[in-house]
Specification:
The complex is a heterodimer. Chain A has a domain of 196 residues: Orthogonal Bundle (Hypothetical protein af1432). The mean pLDDT of chain A is 90. Chain A is mostly helical. Chain A starts with 5 loop residues before the first helix and ends with a helix. Chain A has 15 helices and no strands. Chain B is an alpha+beta fold. Chain B has a single domain, classed as 60s Ribosomal Protein L30, Chain: A (2-Layer Sandwich). Chain B is 22% helix and 32% strand. Chain B is globular, with a radius of gyration of 15 Å. The model of chain B has no long low-confidence stretch (mean pLDDT 95). Classes of the chains: A mainly alpha, B alpha+beta.
C-alpha cells in the first residue's frame, strides 16, 4: 500500500475520539483477566454514558416489570457482554451518526450499517473454528468503516468525476480500487491508522485495516478479521444500506477455513440481525 | 405526489393515482411489484428471505419479510383495492436480489430469494413480465400508480425503467 498523503494524515490526527470511556472499555474487554467490576467502574465514571445505558435498558423493548436503577443490576440482567455492547453502541453512535455525503449515506445510514455489522459479528462468533473474543469481534464490526469518516471528505471534492467513472464502467466491482485510484489510499488503510491513533488494541487495528482483505491480517488475528469481513457482507446484503459502495467489495472465499457456516444459518443470522436492529432502534 | 415508503419486510398497495410506492436499498432483498394498469392498482412488497419456516412468529408479525407469506398477501391486497381477480392478468416485476460472488455458495440469498419468488408466482399462475435481478449493486425502486411505470435507480443516481 502506498504512503498516505500528508493532508489525509493530518485529518486522521484531527478526528474526534470515539470517547475515552469507549477506548478504556475496549482495552479492558480485550484483557482476558478483567472482571465485570472493571467494566462497571469505567461506565460509572461517565455519567452521560451511564444514563444512556439505563434509559435503553428501561425502555419498552426490554419489557421489564421493575425498573433497573444501577449498572450493577444491569449487568446481572444483561450479562457483561451485552452491557459492553450497549456502551460501545452508545459511544460509537455519536461519531458514526453523521451523513457521509460522498458515499451517498444519509444521516444514520453509516451507523445502521455499522451496528448491523457488529450484530452480525455477535451471531457469527460462536461459529468460528477457534475461540475468539466475541465482544472484540462486535467492536470490530462497529468500527470497521471509521476510515470513511476521514476519506469521505477528500473523495467528495472529486465526486462528479468519480460518479462519471462509475456510471461509464458498470463492471467496476471493487470500491477499494476506486478509492486508491483517486486518493492513493482506501478507507481500510486510513481506518487502521485512525485505530492506531485512538490506541485501540492491535486485534481491532488489524480487523479495521483488513476488513476487506482478512487474509492480510496477522495470523493470530485472522479469525477476528474474517468475522468482521463476513459480518460486513451480511450487513450489506440485508438491505437499508444505500451507500454508493454497497456490495461492491469482493468476498474472500477463504472464510470457510475460519468459520463453519451454511446458507441456511446465514439466512437465520440476517433475520436475527434485523430483529436486534429493530429492537435497538425502538429503544433509543 | 404522495410517496409511500416500504421498509424491509413491509408492503403497500394503492389505487390513488397521485401516489407512488417506493423502497430503498434492496441489497439481496427483492421488491415484488404487482399491478393492474387498467384498474390503476399497484402494490409492492420488500422480501428479505425465501421461507417463513425459519421463524413463524416473525412471519405473523411481518409477513412481507418472507417470499412465501408476503407474495400471496400482496396478491390478495391488490385485489381488495380493485385489481382484477384473475391472477394471470396482473403484471409482476421483480427488482433486487443482488449477489455476492461466493464459490462456497453460502452467500446466495439473492439467488435463493429469486428462486423462491418465481416458484410461488408459478403456483399462483403468475410470472414476472420484467426483472432486474442479480449483479452486485443495491437498487432503489419506485412505482407510480397512475402510469404503473417502474423506475429503478442505483446509488450514483442513474435511473432506468423496466
Amino acid at each position: 500500500m502506498s504512503e498516505i498523503s500528508q493532508n489525509i494524515v493530518d485529518s486522521i490526527y484531527n478526528q474526534p475520539l470515539i470517547s475515552n470511556s469507549a477506548i478504556q472499555l475496549i482495552n479492558v474487554i480485550g484483557d482476558k483477566h478483567h472482571s465485570s467490576a472493571d467494566t462497571i467502574q469505567i461506565i460509572e465514571c461517565d455519567i452521560s454514558l451511564t444514563a444512556q445505558i439505563l434509559k435503553i435498558v428501561n425502555s419498552a423493548s426490554y419489557g421489564l416489570n421493575k425498573p433497573i436503577e444501577t449498572l450493577a443490576q444491569a449487568v446481572i440482567f444483561l450479562g457483561e457482554g451485552e452491557l459492553f455492547r450497549l456502551a460501545v453502541q452508545a459511544c460509537a453512535g455519536s461519531v458514526l451518526k453523521n451523513a457521509l455525503p460522498f458515499y451517498e449515506s444519509e444521516p444514520g445510514v453509516l451507523w445502521a450499517h455499522s451496528l448491523k455489522t457488529g450484530l452480525a459479528a455477535k451471531y457469527l462468533a460462536p461459529l468460528v473454528k477457534e475461540s475468539i473474543n466475541a465482544e472484540i469481534a462486535f467492536t470490530g464490526g462497529i468500527l470497521a468503516e471509521i476510515g470513511k469518516l476521514v476519506i469521505g471528505q477528500f473523495l467528495m471534492t472529486r465526486q462528479e468525476e468519480i460518479y462519471d467513472f462509475l456510471n461509464k464502467d458498470e463492471s467496476f466491482d471493487n470500491f477499494l480500487l476506486l478509492e486508491r485510484k483517486f486518493l492513493g489510499t482506501d478507507h481500510c488503510q486510513v481506518g487502521g491508522e485512525l485505530a492506531i491513533h485512538w490506541k485501540l488494541p492491535e486485534v481491532l487495528c488489524q480487523c479495521i485495516a483488513n476488513h476487506h482483505s482478512p487474509r492480510l491480517a496477522k495470523d493470530e488475528f485472522k479469525s477476528h478479521a474474517y468475522i468482521v469481513h463476513i459480518s460486513d457482507m451480511v450487513a450489506m446484503m440485508s438491505g437499508k444500506d444505500n451507500g454508493i459502495d454497497c456490495l461492491t467489495y469482493p468476498l474472500d472465499p477463504d472464510y470457510v477455513k475460519y468459520i463453519n457456516i451454511e446458507s441456511s444459518q446465514l439466512a437465520r443470522i440476517v433475520l436475527d440481525v434485523d430483529k436486534d436492529f429493530a429492537k435497538i432502534k425502538s429503544s433509543v | 405526489m404522495n410517496r409511500i415508503v416500504v421498509g424491509v419486510g413491509e408492503y403497500a398497495v394503492s389505487n390513488i393515482m397521485s401516489e407512488s410506492i417506493k423502497t430503498y436499498a434492496l441489497g439481496s432483498c427483492i421488491a415484488v411489484v404487482i399491478f393492474d394498469n387498467i384498474k390503476k392498482v399497484a402494490g409492492m412488497v420488500h422480501v428479505a428471505l425465501p421461507e417463513s419456516k425459519i421463524d413463524i412468529n416473525r412471519a405473523s408479525e411481518l409477513p412481507g419479510y418472507f417470499a412465501d407469506t408476503g407474495i400471496p398477501l400482496l396478491v390478495d391486497e391488490v385485489k381488495k383495492k380493485g385489481a382484477t381477480h384473475f391472477n394471470k392478468n396482473l403484471t409482476v416485476k421483480l427488482i433486487g436480489g443482488a449477489q455476492i460472488s461466493d464459490p462456497n455458495n453460502t452467500f446466495n440469498i439473492g439467488r435463493r430469494n429469486a428462486m423462491a419468488i418465481n416458484k410461488i408466482l408459478w403456483k399462483l399462475g403468475m410470472g414476472p413480465k420484467a426483472t432486474d435481478i442479480g449483479k452486485n449493486f443495491s437498487r432503489t425502486v419506485e412505482i407510480d400508480v397512475n402510469s404503473c411505470s417502474v423506475i429503478i435507480n442505483n446509488a450514483t443516481g442513474k435511473k432506468w425503467m423496466i
